[in-house]
Structures are given as C-alpha cells and as structure tokens.
Design brief:
The structure holds two protein chains of two kinds.
Chain A: H1 2-17, H2 20-37, H3 48-79, H4 83-87, H5 93-127, H6 132-159, H7 163-180, H8 184-189, H9 195-205, H10 210-214, H11 216-220, H12 228-255
Helix pairs in contact in A: 1-5, 2-3, 2-5, 3-5, 3-6, 3-7, 5-6, 5-12, 6-7, 6-12
Chain B: E1 3-14, E2 24-35, E3 39-43, H1 50-57, E4 65-70, E5 73-74, E6 84-87, H2 99-109, H3 114-127, H4 143-154, E7 161-165, H5 173-188, E8 192-196, H6 200-206, E9 209-214, E10 217-223, H7 224-228, H8 234-241
Helix pairs in contact in B: 2-3
Classes of the chains: A mainly alpha, B alpha/beta.
C-alpha cells in the first residue's frame, strides 16, 4: 500500500504545482461572480438560476480536470521515460495502475472540495442558509462518479497512443452518457431489430452517471435528501464500474511491452 | 565468484506492425554471465540488442524464448529487482519535483524507513554533488545534473547490481568524468556494474570484462586485455569483431 500511496502523492503534487487547476478554478470563480452580480429577474431572492449555472460549471470543470490529469499520466511517463526507472523497482504494473488511479481520484476530490466550498460560500451569501447534508450527498456522489471517469480515462490512456485523442474520446463518451444515456432504452423501442437489441445492450452496458448529475437538484431546488439506502446502492453501482475499468486497465497494461 | 546476472539462450523477436514485413529478431540465443563485484561493459553498435537485453533483464520486455536471472531469480518476478539500481538512457525526471523529493519518492517505493531515507538521500546528494540544488525543481537542472539525479535514484536502495544504459550519453567531458568517477567509486565499494556505452575509451578505463554484441548475437566476451589482444586499442578490436573495415583498409 505504501507504494500505491507514494505514486498517488506524486500525482497530487503535480496537480497543485501545475497551472491547469488554478486556471480552471479562477475562470469558474470569475464566471460565477459575474453571474452573481447580475440581477436577471430583478429579484434578489431568485438564486436558483445562479446555482444551476454555477453547479454546471463546477461539473464541467471537474470533468475537464479529471480527464486531463488522468489522460496524461501514463503517456507522460512513457514519453519522459520515467516509466523505466519506476518499473525497474520492485513494483508491479497493477500497483502502478492503482497508484495512478488513487492519485488522480484524490486530486479530483481535492478539486471538488475547493469548488464546493466556493459554491457554498456564494450560495450562503445570497440565501443565508446552507443545507450541509444536501451538499454532502451531492458532492460525495459527484466524487464517486469521477472515480468511474478516472478509471475509464486510465484505461483509454493505455489503449490510445496520444493523450489528446484519449481526452477527447473520454470527454465525448462521458458527456454523451450524461446527456442521452437515460433515453437510450426509449430510443431502442422505436428501432427495428437488430439495432433495438444492440442499443439495449449498450444501454445496459454503459455506466449510468446521471444519478450523481441529477443530485445537483438537491442543492439548486433545495429538495429533501435522497434515502441513504438509495445513495449506498448507487455508490456500489459506480464502484463496480470503476473496478471493472481498473481490472481492464491492469489486463491491458500487463501484456504491454515497455521500451 | 558468484554469478548475479545470467541469461540463457535469450531470444527476443518483435512482430512487425506492417503485414508484409518480417518479424525482427533482436536477440539470437544470448548467453551471458556477470559475476559479483565486477564492472562489466556491454558494447555494440546502435541496434545491436544492448537495450533490448537490458529491457528483458528489467522485465520490460518478455523474452520469446530462453531465460534471464538476477541473483538467481527469474526476472519476471518483481522481487528480482529488489537489489538492483537502473539508470535508463536520456530520462526526463518529474519536472515539478526537486531532487530531494524525487529520491524520497523512490525510497518510498523500496519501502525504506524515514531515518534510512534521510541518511541515503543526504549521502547520495553529496555523492552526485547536487546538495546545493537539492530543493530546486528538476526542470531547472542542466542535462548533466539530470543524469546525476538519475544515478542517485539508481543508488537509492544501495543496490548490489547497477544496470546503466549509456550513462554518459550526451554529457560534456566534465559530466562524463564525474559519472566515470562515481562508477569507479562504486566498483571500489564492491558493487557490480553492468553498463552499455559507445565510449570505448571509458570502457577500457573502468571495466573488468566486456561483451560485444552485434545483430543480436554475442561476438566476444572476456577481460579488456583479452579482447584488445593484438589490436592497438579496444576501439580497433571492436571494429574488427563487428566486421567493419575502414576505407583505407579496403
């Protein structure tokens, strides 16, 4: 475990020593502050639109950070040849994958913490109340969901040679799942065979990330908390996909020659 | 003397990605033995199979047939790498870390205790003369300094066997001399060093034994003076062994 934590520590150091995160964070803050200063409906009490837009920005930023950090990990190790001294140590390739995953996922968690603290402060300044448990449920499921994205991108980085193509493909896949994933079964019904079966298979095979995405409404509309049993089941569902992608990444990496 | 690095009929084939191109044979049944405490030079022209041999020894590339052992353990087992240090050719270490942080990171991978890590890191920074720059990010280091950081990371676990892939490649004469001095010092400490190089003068100076490989086949192995034999220098012997004839000779 110490090896995995050491690898994860380097990924986290990379996050806070590079400029990417700060740029995205500052842009998000600026857009949110500009939005907050404009009173669109001429009613200071209406803050839902502000929360909606800010949370969407937080989601987009978190996905960009998760995908870009993860996509460059192993390709950068190969390009700079740091993978060689690393694998020349008594370290298994599985440990390397898990270390990179843990680092990227933890880095995403730290990023989310910063985003949600800022978002909470902004919302409190307008609404004067803070439903902490709602925030916790939404942020926690958001983080668990990012685990699936990180594992998927890590797998992609072993399959696709260029980090840019991997980032684009992963971003398109995740955005498609978030936007249309839930409608695939309905679309399948309107299709003829064999496309109906194929689309159904896709519907059941893809990880459905829309529940964490919809949790935004807990904060935006102050909806009551979701039952913890349901949240627990969704966490298990997302963790199962994360594990599946990680196992696939380990299997792909195990067979790869490194030179 | 105990054998600590051994290959037995090592054969490596690379399948071509192009359909019509034949499979490339990188190593043809290589048999090699390196004894404890010796500095062993591994020579050959570009593309001869030196780096492939090292890649097999380090578990980066699986052999097509044959076997390789480090300290008697099959190289496919990670534990075989517990007592080795490795310096690859031209590596660009994590730019956002300092030399101190980089060495501590590798020490954690070896599972060294904090006290042991502090001691090793300080000693190695002194050995490679990077104490003054230890807290500076590696991105500000010159090529020679980066190579010395590489040498320090290869020594972090106090290895019994060091595998160095062209350790002086791309360095200026001063940098080369410093690396050579470090290899000499390691030799005096009783470490085994297995290294590839194109600098034959350097090999002549520091090596106990050398092996010459060409087109994946071992052409000669022995003590430097045995290999040099009737030739004026190791370079002349090397060219003769790989079958190169100078213009004036032809």
């Amino acid at each position: 475990m110490r090896t995995i934590f050491a690898l994860a520590g380097v990924v986290i150091k990379e996050l806070y020593r590079r400029k990417d995160f700060y740029v995205l964070f500052i842009i998000t803050i600026l857009i949110c502050l500009v939005m907050a200063s404009v009173n669109i409906f001429n009613d200071a009490k209406i803050v839902r639109y502000l929360k909606e837009i800010c949370l969407l920005l937080v989601w987009v930023s978190s996905l960009v950070i998760a995908i870009t950090i993860t996509a460059r990990q192993i390709p950068a190790e190969k390009e700079n040849r740091t993978l060689l001294p690393l694998l020349a140590k008594p370290l298994t390739r599985t440990q390397l994958i898990f270390g990179k995953f843990l680092g990227c996922w933890s880095a995403c968690g730290l990023t989310l913490l910063c985003f949600y603290i800022f978002f909470g402060a902004l919302a409190v300044s307008r609404e004067h109340h803070l439903p902490l448990l709602n925030y916790f449920q939404a942020a926690f499921l958001h983080w668990i969901m990012l685990g699936v994205v990180v594992a998927l991108t890590l797998l992609g980085s072993l399959v696709f040679a260029a980090p840019s193509s991997n980032s684009t493909i992963c971003f398109v896949i995740v955005a498609t799942i978030l936007c249309v994933g839930r409608y695939l079964d309905a679309v399948a019904l309107s299709l003829a065979e064999p496309f109906r079966t194929i689309l159904y298979a896709v519907y059941f095979a893809i990880p459905h990330l829309e529940i964490p995405f919809e949790m935004r409404n807990l904060i935006v509309h102050d909806w009551p908390l979701i039952g913890w049993n349901f949240v627990g089941l969704d966490i298990l569902y997302l963790l199962a996909y994360t594990a599946a992608f990680l196992v696939a990444a380990c299997l792909v990496f195990r067979r790869k020659a490194v030179n | 003397m105990s054998v600590i690095l051994q290959t037995e009929k090592l054969r490596v084939e690379f399948k071509s990605r192009e359909l019509r191109q034949a499979t490339k044979i990188a190593l043809h049944g290589l048999d090699l033995e390196v004894n404890a405490g010796e500095v062993f030079g591994f020579l050959g022209p570009n593309g001869a199979g030196k780096t492939t041999t090292m890649n097999v020894l380090l578990g980066f590339v699986p052999p097509t047939s044959g076997a390789a052992y480090l300290f008697g353990i099959d190289v496919r087992q990670p534990i075989a790498r517990q007592r080795i240090g490795y310096l690859p050719e031209l590596t660009y270490y994590y730019k956002f870390l300092s030399a101190d942080e980089l060495l501590r990171f590798y020490a954690k991978i070896f599972g060294l205790s904090r006290t042991e890590t502090d001691q090793r890191v300080n000693n190695l920074l002194k050995l490679v003369e990077l104490e003054h720059a230890s807290k500076r990010p590696i991105k500000f280091y010159s090529k020679g300094m980066q190579q010395r950081v590489g040498l320090a990371q290869a020594l972090i676990n106090n290895p019994d066997l060091l595998i160095l892939d062209e350790p002086t490649s791309g360095l200026d004469p001063l940098g080369r001399m410093k690396v050579r001095e470090i290899i000499q010092r390691l030799k005096n400490e009783g470490k085994t060093v297995f290294f590839s190089s194109h600098e034959l003068g350097e090999v002549e100076t520091v090596c106990d034994r050398v092996a010459i490989i060409h087109q994946g086949e071992l052409k000669a192995v022995g003590r430097v003076n045995e290999i040099t034999g009737r030739h004026a220098s190791l370079e002349k012997a090397f060219l003769d062994i790989i079958g190169y004839q100078t213009q004036s000779a032809t």
